[in-house]
Design goal:
The complex is a heterodimer of chains A (about 110) and B (about 110). Chain A has about 110 residues and is mostly beta strands. Chain A is built from no helices and twelve strands. The chains are: A mainly beta (about 110), B mainly beta (about 110).
Chain lengths: ~110, ~110
């Protein structure tokens, strides 16, 4: 079946630190992969996506590369800000179903 | 502006009192769905709709109903709410069921069932 596994949070960092949030997936076929971000009190917003192997999605300084060989889509940012504090969801779309990981809370302190 | 609008944003009610959460999108999307978000469980799909008059169960449909009489609206109905339905609910839409374009989410409805 299809599934997404994310690292458990919270991830606590100081401002300007390097961020990695791990995401691995299990899927049949060739899914599209997404990172969504949920700021406090808001719905989910698309952060970035990749639709095929070796694609790199990027937005707002965040990046993730679709790695078919390791079935991974890790989220990275070189220098986090306090305003990046949110919950991050990795997701895959396979045929018709969008499947989410359990989410990783990021807390960035000044 | 492309939007998915849910109402109400917050609701506290009592066990057994029927309630409806409305969802409307202005993007002419065919596909709409409802999720609930619970700590440690991520988002779980309740029901989805591939088009008008076409609805199907997601992963956790028990205790919920939906309807899709018009393309833009997809209400979630709790006929007899129970405390285990206390959760944060999200409506979402995307262009078609197989589109890999991003799914748009509403801002969420926090339900508390006492």
């Amino acid at each position: 079946g299809n599934s997404v596994t994310q690292m458990e949070g919270p991830v606590t960092l100081s401002e300007e630190a390097f961020l990695t949030i791990n995401c691995t997936y299990t899927a049949t076929g060739y899914p599209s992969l997404f990172w969504y971000v949920q700021y406090p009190g808001e719905g989910l917003q698309l952060l970035l996506k990749a639709t095929k192997a070796d694609d790199k999605g990027s937005n707002k300084g965040f990046e993730a590369t679709y790695r078919k060989e390791t079935t991974s889509f890790h989220l990275e940012k070189g220098s986090v800000q306090v305003s990046d504090s949110a919950v991050y969801f990795c997701a895959l779309l396979n045929t018709d179903k969008l499947i989410f990981g359990t989410g990783t809370r990021l807390q960035v302190f000044p | 502006e492309a939007q998915v609008t849910q109402n109400p944003r917050y609701l506290i009610t009592v066990t057994g009192k029927k309630l409806t959460v409305t969802c409307s999108q202005n993007m002419n999307h065919e596909y709409m769905s409802w999720y609930r978000q619970d700590p440690g469980l991520g988002l779980r799909q309740i029901y989805y709709s591939m088009n008008v008059e076409v609805t199907d169960k997601g992963d956790v449909p028990e205790g919920y109903k939906v309807s899709r009489k018009e393309k833009r609206n997809f209400p979630l109905i709790l006929e007899s709410p129970s405390p285990n339905q206390t959760s944060l609910y999200f409506c979402a839409s995307r262009e078609t069921v197989t589109s890999n374009q991003p799914q748009h989410f509403g801002d969420g409805t926090r339900l508390s069932i006492l």
